[in-house]
């Protein structure tokens, strides 16, 4: 399945309210409402995340969900569709996130010393 960027263009952002408390967000949010996923301590534990990544780090997620609501409306000016999905199963590749962090720091995962520290931190 090919991933698509969900980032909104300028036309989509026009007229949207800036997100309170988000630095550099004077033009409104970059992504549509509802695409943010919040994970609590229990969820992070289920996903095997023990150490917290830095804010801004990328991660990969894979999820299965169930459509719980669909809506469609049409008026004289436009039509609108929406769908709500309840995530029922999920995986997060925090190793990919860690490897990207290593690349960002110009560290080679194949270096035995780097690999030893990586494995130790990963299992903390």
Please trace the helix and strand order, writing H or E for each element.
HHEEHH
- The largest beta-sheet arranges its strands as 1-2
The percentage of residues in β strands lies in 15-25%
- Domain unit count: 2
Shape label: elongated
Contiguous uncertain segments of 5+ residues: none
Number of helices: 4
Structural class: alpha+beta
Please, what is the average pLDDT? 79
- The separation of the N and C termini measures 33 Å
Number of strands: 2
What is the CA-atom radius of gyration, in angstroms?
19 Å
Task: Report on this structure.
- The chain is α+β, with helices and mostly antiparallel strands.
- The chain has two domains: 36 residues, no CATH class; 72 residues, no CATH class.
- 26% of the residues lie in helices and 24% in strands.
- The protein has four helices and two strands; from the N terminus they run ααββαα.
- A two-stranded antiparallel sheet has the order 1-2.
- The longest helix has 11 residues.
- The model has no long low-confidence stretch (mean pLDDT 79).
Sequence-ordered SSE layout with sheet pairings:
Layout: H1 10-13, H2 41-46, E1 60-74, E2 79-93, H3 94-104, H4 112-122
